[in-house]
Design a protein that fits this description.
With 180 residues, the protein is mainly β. The protein is built from no helices and 14 strands.
Length: 180
């Protein structure tokens, strides 16, 4: 991620099966000089679903050029929640807010004062996609809305994933969800 003439590299690292989110910075990423990585996650993040499948989107770090803020969304295994926090510099972070109370794979976008999470909400015979938004930089969250639902009870080996989400410059939401 490149913002404010600085490269920001975010990654996870595991200790005893639990993951934390780290960030390191460089003003010239090509020369290999990076800051000491800093742990920016309040809670350990979730690496697996209850059935053992690896969650492909454990965290999402975005820079909101319109607002001049970084936004970090992540799923915490210790609380089964998805959290959101902001930063103006990528090193000092605001208190987290709970964006969603069920922990599953998600994608996030952050534009202007709006934060958007699209969360996979599939259950046994139903693939679904839930949307939750904030219009005050993640301080408060609106009600969860089911954006997509599909009965998959007749499929032999169904799978689904939420692939991407974007807030358009006109405020419209766009999402890509895969369901077989």
């Amino acid at each position: 991620l490149y913002a404010n003439s600085t490269y920001y590299l975010s990654f996870t690292s595991s200790t005893d099966g639990m993951f934390d989110i780290y960030i390191t910075t460089s003003t010239n990423g090509a020369d290999g000089t990076w800051s000491e990585p800093t742990d920016i996650s309040v809670e350990n993040i979730k690496a697996e679903e209850s059935d053992g499948d690896v969650v492909p989107f454990m965290f999402s770090l975005k820079y909101n050029e319109d607002a001049g803020y970084f936004g970090l969304g992540y799923a915490a295994s210790s609380t089964n929640a998805i959290y959101f926090t902001t930063s103006t510099d990528g090193s000092s972070w605001s208190a987290t807010s709970t964006a969603y109370s069920w922990n599953n794979n998600f994608v996030m976008d952050f534009y202007g004062d709006t934060v958007l999470f699209a969360v996979k909400a599939s259950t046994g015979s139903n693939h679904a996609l839930n949307i939750v938004t904030s219009t005050d930089y993640g301080a408060t969250w609106g009600s969860t809305v089911e954006a997509f639902s599909r009965d998959i009870s007749t499929f032999d080996d169904p799978s689904s994933s939420v692939l991407d989400v974007e807030i358009g410059s006109d405020g419209t939401f766009h999402t890509l969800f895969f369901s077989v």
